[in-house]
């Protein structure tokens, strides 16, 4: 009887000890995975749930999916295997947007002549946010938009500043400024030609703009057809692994005047005339010309530049200023400058191997 009692006590003790051990082991599972200390993750980052784990006491059978493009709290459940069983471990992270909006300017400084028209938005290439996308201009600051502040007096000579302030929907704020120099009109201004007498020049229905054929001041603007064609070209390039961002599009007569004057002041008229058009003589004023890719002569030798040269016509564009043709086009080689003609005409010009002036027999 005593032996049975003793045996029962021993068995009971072992069972109790086992239960205690199991409880201790299960309790230790709370620390089975050690996570990185910072549980705040930047929106859009490429981090994975696996990278959040510093160490694990068991084998992680399954890593949860982490969606860094979903703002707010996320509960991640890890399935962990132990020698004595398995259990789900939960870890909470917070996806936040702390990135400031991006303000892209065409130039850090522009020059206009006294009395010329001036639109401060013409120098803004774009304002966008990683979460909100493109931001819209408003008069008063609200989340998800930007404002433009300008005190430029076009009638008074001096240096002014334009300020762009952008706020995304999570109140991240960025600011960018550029200078505007208003110069006195010379009594002997650079001869651009009579802007009022100039008329758009067409050959076989194709608009030709160059040093011989100028546009009137009021001609041109945003061209929907050309911009849609450009978007298709850029999408096609992206699918092939090439990035062809828009660097410059439509420019008004007055904007081109400021740009050209800056180049003349920097490099002299003779040099500037090789790469910059006088106002009224720029294809950008038509809304049919774009600078894309990189503003570098070597761009034409890059994979993206070669792809553009070989496929631009499929979307209605030509490389307007090809290499070795400066004596015909009037401008140095620009592998980034494309001109919209429509698919049929662009393909015909491309297959001819000629410049637009040669193709139209007008040079």
Automatic annotation (TrEMBL):
The keyword Glycosyltransferase does not apply. SUPFAM superfamilies: Hedgehog/DD-peptidase. InterPro entries: DD-CPase-like, Ig-like_fold, VanY-like_core_dom, VanY/YodJ_core_dom, Zn_M74/Hedgehog-like. GO terms for molecular function: carboxypeptidase activity. One of its GO terms (biological process) is proteolysis. Pfam families: VanY. Keywords: Carboxypeptidase, Hydrolase, Membrane, Protease, Transmembrane, Transmembrane helix. Residues 223-342 form the D-alanyl-D-alanine carboxypeptidase-like core domain. The chain crosses the membrane at residues 6-26. The keyword Hydrolase applies. CDD domains: LD-carboxypeptidase. This is D-alanyl-D-alanine carboxypeptidase. It comes from Amedibacillus dolichus.
